């Protein structure tokens, strides 16, 4: 999994929450992230950086995380946190998805286990 600087982090208290990686080295453990929004716990350290606990901000599950956050008791704070994450991502990428995200989407869209389907083209007579 390729990580951008803006990510989703699974937290015990808030569920999936937008955050920014602040560790200089993304492979460093524990990986330090700072949660967006006005919440008491801003800094989180992750020993496990598998997709179970951290995902790129622009991932296939983003809409699910957004829906869950909008329906939570902390929806106002969550909305602010998402806005801050989007602003940070836009600032870093000139409004475009990060290169890591674009590469991640391309790699995920290619399923090497299935043979490619080729259409036979016959010339017109």
From TrEMBL:
According to the entry, every stretch annotated as the PWWP domain falls at 3-38
**A Pfam family recorded for this sequence:** PWWP
InterPro entries reported in the protein's UniProt record: PWWP_dom (IPR000313)
Query: Taxonomically, which superkingdom?
Result: Eukaryota
Q: What is this protein called?
A: 25844_t:CDS:1
């Amino acid at each position: 999994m390729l990580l951008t600087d803006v990510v989703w982090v699974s937290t015990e208290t808030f569920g999936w929450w937008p955050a920014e990686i602040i560790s200089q080295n993304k492979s460093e453990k524990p990986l330090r992230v700072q949660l967006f929004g006005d919440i008491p716990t801003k800094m989180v350290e992750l020993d496990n950086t598998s997709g179970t606990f951290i995902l790129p901000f622009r991932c296939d599950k983003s809409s699910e995380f957004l829906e869950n956050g909008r329906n939570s008791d902390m929806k106002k704070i969550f909305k602010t946190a998402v806005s801050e994450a989007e602003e940070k991502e836009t600032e870093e990428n000139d409004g475009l998805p990060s290169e890591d995200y674009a590469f991640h989407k391309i790699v995920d869209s290619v399923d090497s286990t299935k043979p490619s389907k080729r259409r036979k083209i016959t010339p017109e007579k």
